[in-house]
Amino acid sequence: MKQLDLDRIHSYKLATPNKVYTNERGEQYIGTSEGRLKRYTPTPQNEVSTITNVTEINNLDSPHASTHEDGGTDEIDVTDLSGELADPQKVTIHKNGTSVGTRPNINLIEGSGITLTILDDAPDDEVDVTIASATPLFSKSTVDQSSASTSLFNITNLALSIASSQTIYFKCLIHVGTSANNGVRYAVTIPTGATMKVMLTGQTTTAIASGASGNATQWLTTSGTQSGTINGIIQANQNAVLEGWVVNSTTAGTIQIQGKSQDAANTVTFYAGSFITGHVI
């Protein structure tokens, strides 16, 4: 038996009591009751019979890899061994309990709205992965805002910040009321250099998002340019919806919703609870 095998038997207390082991140099060891090995000097011939289970290991160089594999009779335990194993060690990845694949490497990919921060933490001998989801953008008006102004003005709190080079998809729902049937006009302002495409939908009759006028649905593509007239009825419970995207350039700023009355005889009220929400795409 090779010396390496004997060292392992001794270290892991695998020796069979009273069993004789012979190494490749002819040196003999006998198993103790504690599973260890100690040097053995053969007894005289007339005393050999008093030793039970005396066995000399032969043909140990014959193929026996399977005995060292998982579940084998001489399974190798690599616990606490230093260094790296020669072959890549594979990991089986599961998704919701279903196996996806078994590979030696795992590649983490950032999906939409997800940010990965990965740190090779040498002191703790680990790789730290922090997964963060993008916080939805949201702003809501908290007070009623009434005006008969025929100039565009910012509707309080109906705005989202946009960083340089960001693209934001947004939707704004406005609860609006009018004192006359002159109607309301809307606009969206964005930072210099940014582009946008925003659909405006609103009431032109008592029915939501419909009416004989072609202004019931409109596209806004230029910052600060007012829409056609909608909400042209005397009604406290009307709506207007703006939905679209803004692609920013190098100047950070704000996506701001604006409104105005089409006639000074018409007082427009933008009610509390109107909101704008969005996310970075």
Q: What structural class is derived from the secondary structure elements?
A: mainly beta
- Report the principal-axis shape: rod-shaped
Percent helix, as a range, is under 10%
Strand content: 35-45%
CATH architect. name of the largest domain: Sandwich
| Helical run tally | 1
Instruction: State the CATH class of the largest domain.
Output: Mainly Beta
**Count of DSSP E strands?**
18
Largest sheet: 8 strands, antiparallel
CATH topology of the largest domain: the name is Jelly Rolls
Distance between the termini: 67 Å
Ranges where pLDDT stays below 50 over 5 or more residues in a row are 46-61, 209-213
The helix-strand sequence is HEEEEEEEEEEEEEEEEEE
Query: Looking at the chains present, what oligomeric state does this protein adopt?
Result: single chain
What does this structure look like?
The chain has 281 residues and is mainly beta. The protein folds into three domains: 3-68, no CATH class; 91-133, no CATH class; 137-280, Jelly Rolls. It contains one helix and 18 strands. The chain has one helix at 3-11; strands at 20-22, 28-31, 37-39, 91-95, 98-103, 114-121, 126-133, 137-140, 145-147, 153-162, 167-178, 184-189, 195-202, 217-220, 238-247, 253-261, 268-270, 275-280. Strands 8, 9, 11, 13, 14, 15, 17 and 18 form an eight-stranded antiparallel beta sheet that branches. It has a three-stranded antiparallel beta sheet with strand order 1-2-3, with helices on one face. The chain starts with a helix and ends with a strand. Mean pLDDT is 85; it is low at 46-61 and 209-213.
